Amino acid sequence: MLFTAVSMGCLAFAILADREDRPFAAMVTLLFLGVTFLLVMELVMLRRVVWDGFRLRSGTEMHFVGTGFSGVSPALAGLCFTSAAAIIIWTWVTRGVIPITGPVGRTGGLLLLTFMGLGTLSVVVLKRFYPSGIKMDAEAVRVRQGISEHCFRWSELESVTLHIRRRHAFLDIAGEEGNHLSLPAIYYESNPYYVAELILYYLRHPDRRELLCDPEAAIREVMEIEGPDAP
What we know:
This protein is an alpha+beta fold. Helix content is about 50%, strand content about 20%. The strands form two sheets. It has a four-stranded antiparallel sheet with strand order 1-2-3-4, with no helix packed on it. A three-stranded antiparallel sheet has the order 5-6-7, with helices on one face.
């Protein structure tokens, strides 16, 4: 709400300001709007977590998918940052003045803003093809964070545990040779306890891993065996 109020104030200033001040006011408005859209994205990500079940990617093998940096908000944030950088460049070219400074000199702020804008838009595009999350098949458990993917083969997987940090549940996956990941729920947007139960079940029952090609059947088997009503 604070960023929204500040953005609206900057927008009013951009409209009412003198012609000389309007580029700077527009730049500040776009900057605060971009940050606001990123905050909205984070809130939406937290609300998307399915605490009473799973969020699966349709049409694939078992894939608990995270939808971070997808949708309208991050794209708008990237456009805001990029547009702010374009205003700075236009002001620099037409007036010979850079209306923003940074830690590495007069062009530091411009470079940082350009990186934020193009970087955010690049992540939005990449997420369309490389969504974050946890993928399970008969060979391994694969975890994607950004553009990097970590592979834990079943034979190398040592432990799957949960721990609470700052009132949030983290899923810890540890393999051989110190390979370890600690994942918050927003990476796979499913109930961490249920995901841990699934991984542990198929770790202990290698003969049942062929079910992982059918996510519905794989989940149904574990929930029926490990569920609260099980004998």
